[in-house]
């Protein structure tokens, strides 16, 4: 279960839960492969948690989505 960031807050940045899952998974793979972080500090140690924190911070978005 995701406690932080909350799903409600994340859905303010992404249109659907499916899109959120796909975005977070793709970004987590990028982070695992050595991509540079988009935030200075993360609360989560895991790459999926880091990806979700980036979404909440508005640093990670789906291309073409408002």
From TrEMBL:
Entry GO terms, CC: DNA-directed RNA polymerase complex
UniProt KW Transferase keyword: yes
GO biological process: DNA-templated transcription
The keyword Nucleotidyltransferase is assigned to this record: yes
E.C. numbers: 2.7.7.6
Spans through the membrane: none
Family listed: Belongs to the RNA polymerase subunit omega family.
Molecular functions (GO terms): DNA binding; DNA-directed RNA polymerase activity
Name the UniProt record assigns to this protein: DNA-directed RNA polymerase subunit omega
Complexes and interactors: The RNAP catalytic core consists of 2 alpha, 1 beta, 1 beta' and 1 omega subunit. When a sigma factor is associated with the core the holoenzyme is formed, which can initiate transcription.
Record gene name: rpoZ
Source species, domain of life: Bacteria
